[in-house]
Write a structure and sequence with these properties.
Blueprint (H helix, E strand, L loop, with lengths): L3 H8 L15 H9 L5 H19 L6 H17 L6 H14 L5 H5 L3 H11 L5 H15 L6 H11 L4 H17 L4 H23 L4 H18 L5 H15 L4 H16 L7 H14 L7 H21 L1 H19 L4 H18 L2 H15 L9 H11 L9 H15 L3 H4 L1 H10 L10 H15 L1 H7 L16 H8 L5 H24 L3 H15 L2 H4 L6 H18 L4 H19 L12 H9 L2 H29 L6 H12 L2 H28 L15 H15 L5 H14 L5 H17 L3 H4 L1 H8 L8 H17 L3 H17 L6 H19 L7 H13 L6 H17 L4 H5 L2 H8 L4 H17 L2 H16 L10 H15 L1 H7 L5 H20 L2 H12 L7 H4 L33 H4 L21 H19 L6 E2 L5 E2 L13 H7 L16 E2 L2 E2 L38 H7 L1 H13 L4 H7 L1 H18 L1
Antiparallel strand pairs: 1-2, 3-4
Helix pairs in contact: 2-3, 3-4, 3-5, 4-5, 4-7, 5-8, 7-8, 8-10, 9-10, 9-11, 10-11, 10-12, 11-12, 11-13, 12-14, 13-14, 13-15, 14-16, 15-16, 15-17, 16-17, 16-18, 17-18, 17-20, 18-21, 21-24, 23-24, 24-25, 24-26, 27-28, 27-30, 30-33, 31-33, 31-34, 33-34, 34-36, 35-36, 36-38, 37-38, 38-41, ...
Organism: Brassica napus (Rape)
Family: Belongs to the RRP12 family.
InterPro entries: ARM-like (IPR011989), ARM-type_fold (IPR016024), HEAT_RRP12 (IPR012978), HEAT_RRP12_N (IPR057860)
Length: 1265
């Protein structure tokens, strides 16, 4: 039977804070109306008591408020408890329940009056035979009285006694009461009193369990109960009594019992994690040190070690924040304890200990601790007497010991701790961790078979490099370039130096690294003179590796102002004499200049969470004053560098990656204006002379044809092109007047008959428009006149860049007439560029179209949605063009804007009638553009918009003129599948014309077939399919959206552009090419039939693709699977052009010549096998002619099962990946079949069995004949 109090509080939904409980009304009537219908005996007892109290109040002519019932209940309960005999519990319990209900409705003054209520509650709690239910109600009354300020130590004792009650619910409520009392009386004498009572009780039960053998079991149980209480209350107790409790914890940890240790650790965790708790630091650190000694034993459980490691982390960090000196003394002992936990075999404990060590290193090692250790080492070097190692030396020794072979199984975790220590110590790590770095260097020599942590080792060494700096690092771990044997050089250090060097000194590069470069270059020349070409090349590669360190040394160096002049002289010489280093040098200059410019201009350097501490320290050292001084020094060296770089750029005619141009541009941006102007006018003079020479050559030409010797780098066209590129690089350092001069020189070049010159001229103009504010408004008339000229097709992309700035300017002007004139003049040219054959030009046209739209919609610069719609309408107006090229280009422009701006979707739907009319034209160009627009609408529209226009879309798609129906049926099918996916099959079916229902049925069947194949697939294919659905799709791709043929992958089903239309979307575009385009190795007229669809011979593209794939397949099969050739010195031989066929000694070689002969026997042919996804190595050299099975060959590896790797494994399409990994299943299945069998049994069940059966079959056939 349920308890009385639970029946009221849960069954009748009454709580002490019940809002419906009357404050001044008839409490008895309210309770009786709620409980009178109950048939439970305990509730009937409660109703009887309430009825008696109501009658007593009525006789005394008292009001029936909660206060009156409180007084009447107290009086009645007092009379029951005053009798000598034990009061009946079935009468006492209803009285206590009534008190628990009316207490919240009675004022504090009434409750405190005479102390009657508190005395009655304590009397009930002392009853021997009281039930747990009655105790729970009495406890609620008691906690209400104590939180109102009743300071009674006797009440606290009662609560503590109940905290060790045998009933779990009573203990839980008692603990909660103690916690509430401590929390509400925090900082008062009552809190001190309760804390003292808890501490005394804990110490008492602890002594009882320790000393009394007769009651040891009972005492231990009481201690466990009190530990649960302390877990709730210790963080709220006073500091003095917490220290007493922690001393008790220390005694309990000696037992090393998991049942005792876990609540102790939980209590300490609660104490340390509470930011307002009063922590006695000395006692806490002492118990943590004690735990570090005890819990390092191997027999400790995994759970205990894990919780202990986490306690060390929070406890020591909290102790360090309160009292550094006390914490630091015990820190080495805690580190040793965590080190022993790392040596355990429990993974969770290892991770917890590693995390704790890293946290303690970061939080508990400060500058004073490091400085103390450094001073100690310096004193010992000066022969000053040293008593003992400092704390930081002990910590570093502990971290270093993690690299012992004892910890080889957890070296990956040890490397993390070592890296953290290097990062924390910084440059001072050279004092403490020199031996550690040497040990890390020695680990590089470990064989790969027994050392799987090579990557983690290099990261750890990189941390040491970033902390110490390259100079100190290379003094400890040497490159060993002076070794006579090149194999002894530590070449593994070069990638680490290149990646992790930051904040170094340029002087170290100029004095040390450059000396190494000179030495190795001289050595390479000597080896070359001795005829050792291979060794000379190896040394040359080392020279280049040393030069490749320069960009890293230019990454926030500390001595730019002092050392850049020396570096500049070296770089000028290297640029002129060593052409292979120009890219590295230019990259270094770009890094150095750009970093200082960003700091001076106030740009915030992006530093992510993964940035190394060395990089953070280097960035912190750079301020605007420091960067300005660096730029001043570089400005003084800029004239010489600019002169050398411009001369090289002018003469070489080759600038791979544009490094020379970018370096000239950065130097021009910081150089003095007169220096750049001088170089500019020199360039313009050379340009004028080159132009005159070109004109003279054209006039002297007899044929009069436009002949440009582009292969000759010294030709006039190439020379002028390089000069224009040089002008682009000089633009960042020019003022307004110089820019106007450059613009004047561009005008004739923009009308030059040579496309190469036009292209460069438009490129220069686009850079001017991009970088010069106000240039468009100042030269608007001239620009408009120039843009009206017809340009060469190769210059169109850069002309589009220029048109963008003109149209963007028009979008911001307030002159409506000027805006209309500019847009109407140049927008059609941008739209027509959408049809360009050149992909870069076409993509740039799409970008310009979208960027102009953003300019119209940019509210910060005067744009709004209304202007955007006006711009959209101007694009739509181009549909009125007469030629199909203009109409299809306008449709593509509409589709691109609709894809980018969700606000335009509703306006695009208004074009659907015109779209369906255009679909009726027998023009392939217009049709495919309109189908692309429909794809964008279906993919980008919300479902509601599609439902509203579903009928018109479906009917319009299915109305086709004769002659074009078969050309785009796959596109229409894909659109219908997208509609089904977004709107549902039933919605599409309801608007589908009856004569086309078969198409809908076919789509459904194909989809079900695919689902069945997926469900029946292996677990690997399903996981690959899930990866495919989560992979990031591509962005807008006009080539796939407006494709010429039906080459979309039906598996995509519109996934390519799925997503909600919210704002300026950058949703990806979707359409994927068919597998027939990606599988050129298929046989004659063979296509991907994964969808069970036959080859459509009406489709010209598919037919041509199938024929082309068969030709490519025959060509690839003609090439033999030859091994690499090596010469006598072991160098790989690479043939230029087609590789010569080698003669084969075996008879199989002669058979290979007739491999594709129709007359050759199938038994003798050793064909190169191809998998469904491409070429696969088959191991034919192990094949036997006489029987099945493999043979051992001389100078060959033993035969092995081979799983061919295939690039299709990296494909985003799950069906292609499934085909690529299909071969692995046969290897695994065969292994499973042969598992546990002897060699004879395996051969009998596989190869020889098949061979015997193969011999019997021909005999049987011969006999039947």
């Amino acid at each position: 039977m349920d308890s009385l109090c639970l029946g009221i509080e849960t069954g009748l939904c009454l709580t002490p804070s019940e809002p419906d409980l009357p404050v001044s009304g008839d409490f008895g009537e309210f309770m009786l109306s709620r409980l009178s219908q109950s048939k439970r005996p305990d509730l009937n007892h409660l109703c009887a008591v309430i009825d008696e109290l109501s009658k007593a109040l009525a006789e005394g002519n008292h009001s029936r408020t909660p206060v009156a019932y409180f007084a009447a209940t107290c009086s009645s309960l007092d009379s029951l408890l005053s009798s000598d005999a034990e009061p009946p519990l079935d009468v006492v319990q209803p009285h206590v329940v009534i008190l628990s209900l009316v207490f919240p409705k009675v004022s504090a003054g009434v409750l405190k009056r005479n102390g009657l209520a508190l005395r009655l509650v304590l009397s009930v709690l002392r009853l021997r035979s009281v039930t747990p239910e009655c105790l729970i109600s009495a406890l609620k009354c008691l906690v209400h009285l104590l939180t109102m300020g009743n300071e009674v130590s006797e009440a606290h004792s009662v609560l503590l006694n109940l905290a060790t009650h045998s009933d779990g619910k009573v203990r839980k409520l008692a603990n909660s009461c103690l916690r509430d009392v401590l929390e509400k009386t925090r900082g008062t004498k009552a809190c001190q009193s309760v804390s003292g009572t808890i501490a005394e009780s804990f110490q008492k039960h602890l002594d009882l369990a320790h000393n009394s053998e007769a009651r040891s079991a009972e005492g231990a149980q009481q201690v466990l109960y009190l530990l649960s209480t302390l877990k709730e209350c210790v963080a709220l107790m006073s500091k003095k009594h917490v220290a007493t409790v922690i001393e008790g914890f220390k005694m309990l940890m000696v037992t090393r019992d998991a049942f005792v240790a876990r609540p102790v650790i939980d209590s300490l965790n609660a104490l340390c994690l509470n930011p307002t708790s009063e922590v006695p630091v000395e006692a806490l650190v002492e118990v943590l040190y004690h735990a570090a000694v005890l819990f390092s034993a191997p027999e400790t459980s995994a759970d205990a070690m894990t919780s202990t490691a986490r306690l060390f982390k929070v406890g020591m960090v909290r102790a360090f924040s309160l009292n550094r000196d006390v914490c630091v003394v015990k820190l080495p002992g805690v580190f040793n304890g965590l080190k022993d936990i790392i040596a355990s075999e429990h993974e969770e404990a290892i991770f917890a200990a590693t995390d704790a060590l890293k946290s303690l290193i970061c939080s508990c090692i400060d500058e004073s601790l490091i400085r103390e250790g450094v001073n100690g080492i310096r004193n010992s070097n000066l022969d000053v007497k040293k008593s003992s190692p400092t704390v930081i030396e002990k910590l570093c020794a502990t971290v270093e010991s993690l690299l012992d072979y004892k910890y080889h199984a957890v070296w990956d975790m040890a490397f993390q701790v070592v890296s953290t220590m290097f990062n924390k110590l910084g440059e001072e790590s050279s004092y403490f961790m020199r031996k550690t770095l040497e040990d890390l260097s020695d680990m590089q020599d470990l064989p790969d078979e027994g050392f799987p942590y090579r990557k983690q080792l290099h990261e750890c060494v990189g941390s040491a490099l970033g902390a110490m700096g390259p100079e100190t690092f290379l003094n400890i771990v040497r490159l060993n370039l002076e070794a006579s044997d090149l194999s002894e050089i530590n070449v593994w250090l070069f990638p680490i130096l290149k990646q992790y060097t930051v904040g170094g000194r340029l002087s170290f590069f100029t004095e040390t690294i450059f000396r190494m470069i000179e030495t190795m270059s001289h050595k390479a020349q000597q080896l070359k003179l001795q005829g050792l070409t291979a060794a000379s090349r190896s040394v040359d590669s080392l020279v280049y590796s040393l030069w490749a360190l320069l960009p890293s040394f230019c990454n926030y160096p500390v001595d730019t102002a002092e050392s850049f002049e020396d570096l500049g002289r070296i770089l000028c010489g290297a640029l002129q004499t060593q052409a292979e280093t120009r890219g590295v040098i230019c990259t270094s200059l770009n890094i150095l200049i750009q970093q200082n410019k960003d700091v001076v201009e106030g740009k915030e350097v992006p530093v992510n969470d993964a940035a190394s501490p060395a990089l953070v320290r280097a960035i912190t050292r750079y301020d605007s004053h420091h960067a300005a001084a660096n730029l001043e020094v570089m400005r003084s060296c800029a004239p010489k560098l600019l002169d050398v770089l411009s001369k090289i750029f002018h003469e070489s005619g080759k600038d791979d990656g544009g490094s020379l141009q970018s370096a000239i541009g950065n130097l021009a941006s910081i150089a003095e204006k007169k220096t750049v102007s001088k170089l500019l006018f020199k360039t313009l003079r050379e340009l004028l002379m080159a132009t005159k020479t070109a004109i003279a050559e054209d006039e002297s030409s007899v044929s009069g044809m436009d002949v440009d010797h582009t292969s000759d780098k010294n030709s006039s066209s190439n020379l002028r092109a390089r000069l224009f590129d040089l002008l682009v690089s000089l633009l960042p350092g020019l003022d307004g007047q110089a820019v106007d001069t450059v613009f004047s020189s561009l005008k004739p070049a923009m009308q030059d008959p040579k496309g190469q010159i036009q292209k460069k001229a438009y490129k220069v103009l686009s850079v001017i428009l991009k970088s010069s504010d106000g240039f468009v408004s100042k030269n608007l008339e001239e620009l408009l006149e120039l843009m009206h000229n017809i340009c060469h097709v190769s210059a169109k992309r850069h002309k589009l860049d220029c048109l963008y700035f003109l149209l963007a300017y028009a979008s911001k002007t307030d002159d409506l007439k000027a805006r209309k004139d500019i847009v109407s003049s140049f927008l059609p040219e941008v739209i027509l560029a959408l049809k360009e054959v050149n992909k870069k030009t076409r993509s740039r046209a799409y970008d310009v179209l979208v960027q102009i739209g953003h300019a119209y919609a940019d509210e910060e610069n005067g744009g709004d949605t209304e202007k955007l719609h006006g711009y959209f309408n101007m694009v739509v107006g181009c549909l009125a063009g007469e030629k199909p090229q203009m109409i299809s280009a306008a449709v593509k422009g509409v589709a691109r804007l609709t894809y980018e701006f969700s606000e335009l979707i509703a306006s695009a739907y208004n074009l659907l009638p015109s779209t369906f009319l255009l679909l009726q034209r027998k023009n392939k160009e217009i049709t495919k553009a309109n189908l692309g627009l429909l794809k964008v609408l279906v993919a980008k529209s919300p479902v509601e918009g599609l439902h509203a226009n579903l009928k018109s879309i479906v009917e319009g798609l299915l109305k086709w003129p004769e002659g074009t129906k078969n050309l785009f049926k796959a596109k229409v099918r894909l659109l219908l599948e997208m509609l089904i996916k977004k709107c549902g099959t039933e919605a599409v079916k309801s608007v589908m014309p009856e004569e086309h229902m078969k198409l809908l049925t076919n789509i459904r069947k194909v989809k079900e077939r695919k689902e069945r194949k997926y469900a029946a697939g292996s677990e690997m294919s399903r996981s690959q399919h899930s990866k495919e659905t989560l992979s990031k799709a591509s962005r807008w791709n006009d080539t796939k959206i407006f494709s010429d043929f039906a080459d979309e992958d039906e598996d995509s089903d519109g996934d390519y552009m799925d997503g909600e239309s919210n704002g300026r979307s950058k949703a990806p575009s979707v359409l994927k090419y068919k597998a027939s385009k990606k599988h050129p190795r298929q046989s004659h007229l063979e296509v991907d039939e994964s969808d069970d669809e036959p080859l459509d011979l009406m489709d010209r593209y598919k037919t041509r693709s199938a024929l082309r794939s068969s030709e490519l397949g025959r060509k690839r099969k003609a090439d033999s699977d030859e091994e690499a050739e090596f010469d006598a010195e072991g160098r790989l031989i690479i043939y230029e052009g087609e590789r010569a066929k080698r003669k084969e000694i075996s008879d199989a070689g002669s058979d290979a010549k007739s491999r594709f002969s129709a007359n050759s026997s199938k038994k003798n042919q050793k064909r190169l096998k191809t998998s469904e996804s491409g070429y696969a190595y088959t191991g034919k050299e192990y094949a036997s002619k006489k029987a099945s099975g493999d043979l051992k060959r001389k100078d060959k590896l033993e035969p092995y099962a081979y799983w061919p790797l295939d690039r299709k494994m990296m494909s985003r399409r799950p069906d292609q990946r499934a085909v690529a990994v299909r071969g692995m299943s046969s290897v695994v299945k065969l292994t499973k079949r042969l598992e546990g069998k002897s060699a004879a049994e395996a051969l009998a069940t596989t190869k020889f069995q098949k061979f015997r059966s193969g011999q019997k079959k021909p005999a049987g056939k011969k006999k039947s004949k």
